Please model this.
Amino acid sequence: MDNLIAHVAASAGVGPDVARKAVALILDFLKREAPEDAVNTLFDKAPALRAIVATAHTGGEGMGDTLRGLMGTGAGAMGGGGLMALGGDLMNLGLGMDQVQTVGKAIFAYAREKGGDELVGEISGAIPGLSQFI
Model:
């Protein structure tokens, strides 16, 4: 887990705390938007990803899952939602568009290494527009 966070931080030019939050936001988004079986298979093959998501929910953000879902990446009921809301959440961490793409590519490279191209293709193919960020 720490190796992935360190790689993301170095690649995107951000601190480890920002990298961890960015990775957690993206993984949480995938849990909600991608096929459940595919995401669970990926998390089984790459337990570090599951651990990052688990630590994100206890990271002292001050928001429970329900409130974060209403206000954060899951803002679909408020006119945002989806990939655009995820991008907004990542930019709220201080990331620029290039850094968002760098983080996405690093996560999906790790996912390909652990889960294979077919599994990553199933996940990314289920989310319109995601391929431009990975």
